[in-house]
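Reviewers of the previous submission asked for a worked example of the structure-prediction workflow described in the proposal, so we include one complete record here. The input consisted solely of the amino acid sequence. No template or homolog information was supplied to the procedure at any stage.
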Amino acid sequence: MQILDDMNDCTGCSACFNVCPKAAIEMKSDVEGFKFPVIDADKCVNCGLCREVCPVVSARFENSAAPACYAAQGSDELRAASSSGGAFGILAESVLKEGGAVAGAVFREDWTVEHVVVDKMDELWRLRGSKYMQSDMGNCYRQVKTLLDKGTRVLFSGTPCQVAGLRSFLKKDYGNLYCLDIICHGVPSAQMFLESLRENFGSEKNVDFFTFRNKTNGWNRWHSLKISAGGSEQIIEGKNYPYMASFLKNLCLRPSCGRCRFNRLPRQGDLTVGDFWLVDNVDSRLNDDKGTSVILVNNEKGRRLLDAAAAKFKLLEKAPLEKAVDGNPNIVASSRHNPARDVFFHNRGRMSLAENLDFCAAGKFDAAILNFWPYSNFGAILTGYALQKALDEMGVSNRLIWYMNRANGNHLAETFLQSHFKKFADRYMKYTPLLEDEELERLNEQTSCFIAGSDQIWRSTAQGKDKGVYYLSFAGDRARKIACAASFGMADFIGTEEDETLAAFWLRRFDAVSVREDAGRKLCAEKMGIDAEVVIDPVFYIDRKYYDEMADSVSPELPQEYVLAYFLGRKLPENDQMAEYYARKLGLPLIYLSPKEMTTEEWLHYIRGARLLVTNSFHGVCFAVIFGREFVSVAARTMAFSRFETVLGRLGLENRLRPAAETAVSGNFDFTPINWKDVRRRIAAEKDKALSWLKQALSTSKTSLPPFEDRLLGKLCRRLALTQAAADKNGRDNGPNYRMLLAVIDYPRLRRRYWRYKILSKITFGKTRKKYKEKRKELKQKLKQVRRFRKDIGR
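From that input alone, the workflow returned the following structure tokens.
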């Protein structure tokens, strides 16, 4: 049971915990250390109060969208004990002096943070100062409500989401409640802070004093930490303390902080308080290096509170709101998660915080994936997305490699940049910067594992000039090389003899190979000399819910029921005949899917909503199966037919293979309904097999390097490929050198051909004998050159 559809939106404010009448909710830490509500199903009575008070669901934005802005400074003595300008202390004192109470965050004895309520002036010091981790709210909301109901004046201070949580929990406005929201960068977890103390000081028990904002060296954005532990005291710049550095770099923030709904105008509190960074841009007089607060007056109640305390400020001057936003963008927007956030949490526990910070700063990750994901094709981009998502769920940090091979118009960077596929990738995927051929080697500095696949990456006509790239020729000798559900596209190898030689050479360097089709396994065995496993396409590796979320994000106007026709390639009348037949039979409108006019989300929406899909698209078939929609595959029995046969054969759906031309002749259009229970069982089995294979491939350590000669050949081959690419740009031909290297790689086959022609030249006569003698002589000369080259390599 969960309160929100997506619990990553949960802020951990604890409003649900405080409101539950049956104490059925407990706030428990997840694997990242952040607290989330966990519901005890035995105690829950399904009253719905938890969702009703959740600020993510019921937030109100009623304050001013253009609040008055002030620069504020308290006394020098107060500011020395405060993080910034002392604004919170002055406002809190004014409430306490009138018999009120103040709620805020304090350190516990174990250096975690909790919210408490104080009503005595000598307790206020505990609430002062920044505490850069999430505060445990406990039952603070209930305590505040009890005081409010008694008529006590209460000042509640907290992050915007905590203020929103309190207001939602109370369900009504109290005249005696004043809310102060702190400008929030986001929150790390208390668990991670404790880990930093243990890492640096042996145990949190060894720490006697800790402050995140010491002003010995002045007031600055990087902050100075003052720590007393083991009898010694030290001041550390925040950027040099790994926990603080990871916080400031947005590596360790709570999931909801990266898309916070409350860091915006209108603000949640009656007043907003924080550091007035860049206040010098308003007036240098406002920065004496002892701390200046920014105060936003968000409503009339906030105005009354500030006016009542105004005399206590050493300085209180109006300032332009936009200047405050310049120095503190969290006034109007949430922090954005560092792209390496997932990597950071994945490494937690595997290395120290300092090592993890360095690892992420270097942009390192566990694996890099190369396939056709940016090539403006629905199946290609969803395959890339699904494989990345599957690796994420395994805990394998990864990046998709953005590489364009220029094989055709869809394989150009400008095509991708101008397409909706780029927006899809930005929203759902993690990928490297665009890399040219000569830049791919740099990835070896960021990862030691490369995955090629899925899709038709080994179809030589789609690989561009440097075909070795898709066989991971750029990956270092010590890097793991894995092929995941890769495809040759055809039942036989398509390409020149040189292409085939190159493919075999590079594939023998792989540590694990899986292919998508039965024909691919046969080709690997017979022509490449390697064993390959057959696994299902990666679009089946992840839960359908991810595709449903994409499809749900759009709402094109469609009939309630329809037959969908989706055809790739040239227009064939027999395809149209099939689609029209089924539309007539079902009495439904026929919609032709036009891929150039829709986004990936719309493409999924159309397929999911169809009563029947008639298509020759491989991934169209895959998604019809995933969504449980009736379909007919009308793809012709060409050399590319194996991909349909393999996946549908394994799912027990062979009867849906109805090549249009054959069906038109036979007249056998009809079929029995699909047994979806059996299909789902088969999908689960194929998914388990594929993921088990992939986990094994990733976890098996590399035990040996290729032979020395092969390593040298590989480097030379890669260098010549890059030289040829440069030569192509300059209109020169580097082909002879490249072909010589291929001949070296293909030395065993050259020898066999030489002996064949030598024997034939002995047993034949006349012109035939002369022809074989010439061939023998030519090959003999070539073998001499190759042996000389091999000898040089050996040196």
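The chain has a mean pLDDT of 90. We consider this example representative of the routine output the project will generate in years two and three.
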